């Protein structure tokens, strides 16, 4: 099926845009996985540190309890008939520390158990964790003993089931949270990486689109020049005069020159290292000069070019760049206005800003195209604009110049009624 070149170029761009997204999708996924893995690593390290701190806190509190018990009970141990006893002490039930006390044992000098209170873990002397299981319950104890009155040993044991359970519970919770952390990190990572990648992807697409557009724009004049040169070669060989061909080639090469100059200017205007030579400039003077420069072109086209309200407005700017900015707007206004139409220019200070308007009674711009007209190579009607020698860079250059002067450009338009461009720039006052 036949497709016109503009249509096929559009579908090529659409396909290109889909292709351009793929590497960024892959990048986003890779970043998400890395984000989730790093989050898991941070979580694991933090959780393990918390576990170590928690367990050492529990251990030291058990140690403190054991020491406290020994120092509380030690003085209560009596020597009766050469044998250690705690009978008097055991009668004093209800003492506060008894509640946490599980086992108190007395051993003779040979290490033989002589007295015992509470349910024991083990019946031997030991300092440390008693891994043996109690006869009565499945418990674990920590124990400590001291020598008493040179006649034997006092040993206390504390059941550590609660603390062991707490540690096991803590570890289980940490493990159970691993998938939750992984999924949450992946969701957040995906959203976060999407946001991080979006501007890069956007810039890449703009760059890609720009390269495509530039290539497309350059193709036509280059083709015209080479075809014209071939024809010319043949004509010379046949000794024919063919001035039309030379004119065509020179028009195409002029277009190429405009395009490359425009691209170079845009690149320099958008360079972060841009350093415009600025001086106080009266924009009314620039507009006055443009009125003279464009008078002949407007007359030739049968368009009335006039200035209304031309008032002085000083700005700190680069006169050449500002002249280029306004001449692009005036050139467009004349280009897109039919015979008998009017282009009005004005300048002055409005709302504390230096303001220039370029207003025409031309073809206007459809509302759906307004947002794109400042894009490079965008044209509302590509074939018509190209026929008129337009390079499609005028408004992007105008916008870049305005932005380099910290100003703004605004457009209002109605199809078949006309268009008004308003440029505002910070006004210059000598006292600043
Ligand atoms: P071009 O070189 O094609 O004029 P520009 O960047 O200057 O490129 O303008 C982009 C498009 O905006 C034009 O192709 C045209 O469709 C539209 N445009 C710009 N100025 C006017 C205007 N004064 N009236 C109507 N359309 C305009």
How is this fold's topology laid out?
Elements: H1 5-73, E1 78-80, E2 83-85, H2 87-91, E3 103-108, E4 113-118, E5 128-130, E6 141-148, E7 152-159, H3 161-237, H4 243-269, E8 279-282, H5 283-301, E9 304-310, E10 314-317, H6 319-335, E11 342-350, E12 353-360, H7 367-370, H8 382-387, H9 394-404, E13 408-414, E14 418-426
Parallel strand pairs: 9-11
Antiparallel strand pairs: 1-2, 3-4, 3-7, 5-6, 6-7, 8-10, 11-12, 12-14, 13-14
Helix pairs in contact: 1-3, 3-4, 4-9, 5-6, 6-9
Bound molecules: adenosine-5'-diphosphate.
Summarize the structure.
The protein has 432 residues and is an alpha+beta fold. The chain is built from 9 helices and 14 strands.
Provide tags for this entry.
alpha+beta; 5-stranded mixed sheet; 9 helices; elongated; binds adenosine-5'-diphosphate
Note down, in words, how this protein is organized.
By secondary structure, this protein is of the alpha+beta class. It has helices spanning 5-73, 87-91, 161-237, 243-269, 283-301, 319-335, 367-370, 382-387, 394-404, and strands spanning 78-80, 83-85, 103-108, 113-118, 128-130, 141-148, 152-159, 279-282, 304-310, 314-317, 342-350, 353-360, 408-414, 418-426.
Mean pLDDT: 85
Largest sheet: 5 strands, antiparallel
Helix content: 40-55%
Q: Give the helix/strand class.
A: alpha+beta
Q: Between the first and last Cα atoms, what is the distance in angstroms?
A: 65 Å
* Strand composition percent: 15-25%
What's the count of strands?
14
Discrete helix count:
9
What characteristic shape results from the CA principal axes?
elongated
Bound molecules: adenosine-5'-diphosphate
Q: How are the strands of the largest sheet arranged?
A: 4-3-7-6-5
Determine Rg (CA atoms, Å): 45 Å
Unreliable residue stretches? none
Element pattern in H and E: HEEHEEEEEHHEHEEHEEHHHEE
